[in-house]
Each structure stands twice: as C-alpha cells, then as structure tokens.
Amino acid sequence: MENPIFLSEQSGKSFVYYHTHRVYKENLEEAIKSKKSIELDISFDEKGVFYEKGAYYIGHPVTFYTEFGKEFHNNMLLEEAIKILEANSDIFVVLDCKDIRAFIKIEEIIKRLGAHRCLFHAFIKEWSFRPFESDIEVEPHWKEEEIPLEEVLRFKERNKIPIIGACKGFSEKRLRDRNVVNQIIDSVKGRDIDSISLYMPGTILPPLDLARQLSQAGFLNWINIDKIEGVDLSGITYIGMTDVLERASDFKS
Question: Taxonomically, which superkingdom (predicted)?
C-alpha cells in the first residue's frame, strides 16, 4: 500500500489527520476503531523529570511544562502505544519529533509500523530566521524542538516516508518583511520535502496568497481545517490537521 501523503501529492486531494495532545488507551482505541489516524508527539526525558532518565515519551519537551507552564498530560507509555499500533494496521500515524535525540526511536517505530502508514513532522532550525523581533514571544521549548534541515533530509532518505517541515515564530508581517516563503522554497528547491507548514500563532491559517505560492512551487501546505469555515482554499493543496476525530480522513479510503 502506498502512503496516503504520496497519493495526495499525486492527486491534489487533501489528507487530514487527527491531532491530540492527550494519548490515552481509550482515545487511541477510539482512533483505531475509526480507521483514521493519530498523532504522537515524541520527546526525550534526559534528566528523568517525568519518566526514567533517558526515556522517550509521548508529549512535548520537558520545558514546555516546567518553564512554559503548560499542563502535563500523563499520556500512556510510548512503548505501550506502539505495541497497540503494531497490532492494528488500519490506522495512520503522524510522528511529531520534538527532540533530535528522538530520531533513533522514531526510526525504530517506522520500521515496526511500516513506512506506508507514517508521516514525520519537525520544526526546521534554519526556518526560524533568527534573531526574533521583540514582539515575538519565544517559548523555552522551541530550541529543543528545532531540527537542522540537513538532518531531516537525511532522515527522509533513510526512512522513505513523507515529511512536513515547519517554521514558527511568525506573524503575517514577519512572514512578509523577511520574505520567508521565498527563502524556504530556495532552501529546499530540488530537495525532498513534501509539505511546508507556515505555523502561525494559535494555528490560524497562513496568508492565503503565501499558501498558494507554496502549492505553486510543488509543496503541500499544512492547514488546521478546524479554522477554514467560509475560507476559499482554491489553488491550495495541503495536509490537514484536526482536533476532531470525525473530520479526519479514512486511512485506506
């Protein structure tokens, strides 16, 4: 079976995956029953703050909770989730890398689940275009999440799965003032990135003209479909994300 993201690139038909910060056995089993998808944020607990030292876990970087003040969700153990997903092949899995040290674990997961049912997401270090302006709230976990572009490209070459490369820390003004879209396109021209995410505060839609520019350059956008009601997305090809399981695409449709 071919990966649905590769099929989306060929057909122009969007694929929408289910996003959640809470991964418990109950909602994982619900996602499996739906035969749709689920996203797993994968981080590394170096000092044993929430798990054993050196543990990989489902969640954001430790500083997202300890310094940024977000509520820590006691998600199911990563290994438990993967074993359940191994036993149920009718669900697509988005692997959101929150720490470059998680690469080795994510590659193991891809081998166990199969590249045809996996999508990789990472924030690209070079696409932050530092320094940030004074009006940008720089969150403490950003540094941990950012992965060098060349590492991501090598990861794709090894694992043969579709890639979403994301940038963040942008207002519409900063996107335009810094000519961000042109710089990103130039950095991956002729390289193997499938989707580019112009990640906006609050996961609002990126400026539509810039999204169309990415599509015209041959890239899928990344769009929060929970915020597209009444929006004309003509000319925009994309991978969609939703917090509502029922809105997600069927994996094997």
Answer: Bacteria
Give 131's Cβ-side CA count (13 Å radius). 3
DSSP classification of residue 101: G
In a domain, 252, yes or no: no
What is residue 92's predicted lDDT score, i.e. its pLDDT? 99
Selection from 207, 214, 249 nearest residue 232 by Cα: 207
Q: Which residues pair with 58 in a beta bridge?
A: 42
Determine, yes or no, domain membership for 35. Answer: yes
Total Cβ atoms within 10 A of residue 203:
16
Quote the pLDDT of residue 216. 96
Q: Is residue 67 situated within a structural domain?
A: yes
The domain that holds 139 is classified in CATH as 3.20.20
Q: Dump the DSSP string for 134-148.
A: TTS---TTHHHHEE-
pLDDT in tens, 171-228: 888 899 889 999 999 999 878 899 999 988 888 899 999 999 999 999 999 999 999 9
Mean pLDDT of the chain: 93
pTM score, whole prediction: 0.95
Q: Is residue 253 part of a domain?
A: no
Count the domains in the chain. 1
Chain length of the chain: 253
Rounded to 10°, the helix 208-216/180-188 angle is: 20
Mean pLDDT of 62-71: 88
Q: Quick one: which of 152, 79, 82 has its CA closest to 120?
A: 152
The pLDDT score that the predictor gives to residue 171 is 83
